[in-house]
């Protein structure tokens, strides 16, 4: 039955669509194929999520070679939740893409754009479902290389430098990761993550285990833009085509966080390596630095995309703060914030893409009074900004509430105050947009603007509404994140 092959189809459908787009060399045909592949991936991810929601684990053997000899795709509630998130974002953004890409990408490159989009989606989903450490590296490189191209495809020449900077730092991160995996392979003789977790306790007293942990942590931290390893992110988000920014901001760093979770709570969990080492205080310190320093830097940005790029660095700090607690509440907060931040930032960057389409820029000194000329776009940005702050009834509130509960559970009330205090900085930079959009007189150029096309506005508003729907009905998001947290803390099965 085809349902028994859903894990491999999750990756193969967008992977096979990409070269077909190149063969067709038609932007319209490529977009149609990308829409079909993205929505098919979403349907597959939903099916897999429902299959493992009750605590089941799906093991798929590539080429019928049993693990650990062959590559295994291993799906549990943790990566099923992630695959559902990535495919949902991809399915919404690809509908939004068409008008945005027409404006920001040269026509002769449209088919290449959609081919790279499908490749990136395939890589991200492959990272989520694979149970093999080296196979994960392969998918990490597929997603990264396609991301570099997507960023550089726009008309803004500054995107080339942003893509080059991302390439250099991304390559360093990938190198660190593969060195760490190589050390683990030398110690355990396996690349299967579950088998590696079973064998690692027998060699846990070897110093190479600590070296492997260090290499993997630094390598993946570069990929997820953990402060202060975030230098590639602001330029990449600010100068990439708007559709690329929306897609990558909502998915790429979230998948990297998952990789870190998988290694920490699956591979290294039984090795005892965390018992006598102060890793939690280090993670808490870096997370707080991201939450406060990146938010403070965001306040002084003149480019709205760049502002929300620094905001993304701060929001990653909330995710890693929850992970550092190592408790059910903390992990639940971190994992649910993967989803919540994805829909919030997806909404913001998609709406900013509408402004970029009509005005050609998203600088504060050029968008004064835009709330009158583009009311639906501007109001959507304000609503998504409320979610970023963490106002009740939004998804952002759910994440921060659980972070506060996790901090109080630890007896660290000061961390709860830090979560609230850093949210006040978000109030400041969101208010900057409100003040410019609604309390300044529009220039002649701004006054002549009209709303973004419905093909861009509708998907963006779908994300905005998701910020409130999932803030009120948390059954899927909070339920899935809670189950994923409990699964990670139980360790490998």
Can you characterise this structure?
Helices cover 76% and strands 2% of the residues. A two-stranded antiparallel ribbon has the order 1-2. The chain has a domain at 278-493. The protein has helices at 6-24, 27-52, 77-104, 110-129, 133-152, 158-188, 193-199, 207-224, 233-239, 242-267, 279-299, 304-325, 328-359, 370-373, 375-389, 395-410, 413-438, 444-447, 454-472, 477-490, and strands at residues 58-61, 72-75. The mean pLDDT is 87. The longest helix has 32 residues, at 328-359. It is an all-alpha fold.
Q: What is this structure, in a nutshell?
A:
The chain has 493 residues and is an all-alpha fold.
In terms of per-residue confidence, which ranges show pLDDT below 50 for 5 or more consecutive residues?
none
What is the multimeric organization of the chains shown?
single chain
Largest pleated sheet: 2 strands, antiparallel
Mean pLDDT: 87
Question: What share of residues are in beta strands?
Answer: under 5%
Radius of gyration: 21 Å
Tertiary shape: globular
Distance between the termini: 26 Å
The helicity comes to over 70%
Series of secondary-structure elements, N-terminal to C-terminal? HHEEHHHHHHHHHHHHHHHHHH
The count of DSSP E runs of length 2 or more, i.e. the number of strands, is: 2
- Number of DSSP helices? 20
